[in-house]
Design brief:
This protein is of the alpha/beta class. The protein folds into 2 domains: 2-262, TIM Barrel (Alpha-Beta Barrel); 272-369, Golgi alpha-mannosidase II (Immunoglobulin-like, Sandwich), CATH 2.60.40. Helix content is 24%, strand content 21%. It contains 9 helices and 15 strands. The chain has helices spanning 16-28, 67-76, 96-106, 122-125, 129-147, 185-195, 222-234, 247-253, 256-262, and strands at residues 2-4, 38-41, 80-83, 111-115, 153-157, 174-176, 207-209, 272-275, 292-297, 300-306, 313-318, 329-335, 340-346, 348-354, 359-369. A 7-stranded parallel beta sheet has the order 1-2-3-4-5-6-7. Strands 8-9-10-15-12-13 form a 6-stranded antiparallel beta sheet. A two-stranded antiparallel sheet has the order 11-14. Helix 3 packs across helix 5 and helix 7 packs parallel to helix 8. The longest helix has 19 residues, at 129-147. The N and C termini lie far apart (50 Å).
Length: 392
């Protein structure tokens, strides 16, 4: 899970000291201990032009010690280093093999975020976005084979324009699904709404990237930030955090029960809606995305309730609305934000007063057969039929 500099300093105000200090903070604040292990230099690290032999060169004022020195310092902290460019600095189109060798062998990077900005016109490339990304993916694979080392992570970013969830898995490890995020609830709700239609694609070795986390940035409330972090985690998005963090922000970013769902070693699939709530099911609404979600985990069924209203709301669901819940069973309820065990649920769960733009994250574990004598016999009566053929 990476730490990213771009949203915190979007005007190229970075240097090797700031990057190294960020890496040291990841260690000292305990972020590395909960899984944040990449430090990404998002842009502005190079000179504007290549050398005569075609090399990209570090910007001498901001990075006087060179990239190899910087990645060595990051690796010495047991962290990995990533990089990216899209601010009119040299890109890698038609230089893929050359750049991959430089980035990997000489500079020592471990991750590449590869944007689709400033690509030449079609009469030059004569191929689409998939073709351009295939060149880089092939170059990474060839370099790994030649060096005998594992290939570094390739994070694709073409902002969801050509449905990367259908093809990007065979080229890299993650793909951006939407345009850039901004630090406000409107943007977050819109990204949730778009991703709910293809959350099923994420699995081991291939993840939809919902863009960096804005936790600690902008004017998000504490409840909005919790909801933001929960959705990104449960949709199995890469968790890219900002360089700056308050105590309140750290409380969110270091929630190991939420992170544990994102990093589940047994279940790689994301949550999906089982009921939209305010809107009819399968409705796209950028302001009011789906509210009721569930999915599998190694420890039980996870349920996410999202209050998309501007005021507190009571939320309710029948257990068997989730496809991962067995009929006729009761379930222990664990709240992943309060870190409390909240009794046993039979047939349904009610949560009063979910804060505006807030979230409830539950882990449901099988607690055996439900008590006898519950009426009706079926949790969803209209779906049930007696042995004599009569609807119950």
């Amino acid at each position: 899970m990476p730490t990213n500099w771009w949203r915190a300093d979007p005007q190229c105000d970075i240097n090797e000291t700031l990057i190294l200090e960020t890496a040291q903070l990841i260690k000292s604040l305990g972020l590395a201990d909960v899984g944040y292990n990449y430090v990404n230099i998002d842009d502005c690290y190079s000179e504007k032009k290549r050398t005569a032999v075609g090399d990209i060169v570090e910007e001498k004022t901001r990075f006087p010690s060179g990239m190899k020195w910087l990645t060595d310092q990051i690796h010495a902290l047991d962290l990995d280093a990533g990089w990216f460019t899209c601010a009119l600095y040299p890109g890698s189109f038609q230089n893929e093999e050359h750049d991959v060798k430089l980035f990997s062998e000489e500079w020592g990077f471990d991750l590449l975020k590869y944007d689709n900005c400033a690509v030449p016109f079609d009469e030059i490339t004569r191929e689409n976005i998939i073709g351009c990304y295939t060149h880089m993916s092939n170059a990474i694979a060839a370099q790994a084979k030649a060096s005998g080392k594992s290939p570094f992570i390739l994070s694709l970013c073409e902002w969801g324009r050509e449905q990367p969830w259908l093809w990007a898995r065979r080229l890299g490890q993650s793909w951006r699904t939407t345009t850039d995020i901004t630090p406000d609830w409107k943007s977050i709700a819109s990204i949730i709404d778009q991703n709910l239609f293809y959350s099923w694609v994420s699995d081991f070795y291939g993840h939809g990237d919902l863009d960096m986390l804005e936790v600690g940035n902008g004017e998000l409330t504490f409840e909005e930030a919790k909801a933001h972090f929960t959705v990104w985690s449960f949709l199995k998005s890469p968790l890219l955090i900002l360089a700056a963090a308050s105590d309140e922000t750290l409380e969110i970013l270091k929630n190991t029960e939420i992170i544990g769902i994102n990093q589940d070693p047994v279940v790689g699939t994301a949550v999906a809606p089982f009921r939209w709530g305010l809107n009819p099911d399968w409705t796209a609404n950028a302001s009011f995305p789906a509210q009721y979600w569930s999915g599998e985990s190694q420890n039980g069924t996870i349920v996410m309730l999202l209050n998309v209203l501007d005021e507190p709301a009571d939320m309710f669901f029948n257990l068997t609305e989730s496809p991962w819940i067995r009929a006729g069973r009761q379930y222990f309820v664990r709240d992943l934000w309060s870190h409390t065990d909240n009794g046993t649920a039979v047939r349904n769960v009610s949560v009063p007063g979910v804060p505006a733009h807030g979230v409830v994250a539950l882990l449901l574990r099988d607690a055996g057969d439900e008590p006898e004598g519950i009426q009706s016999w079926c949790a969803v009566a209209e779906w049930c039929i007696d042995k004599n053929g009569t609807f119950i």
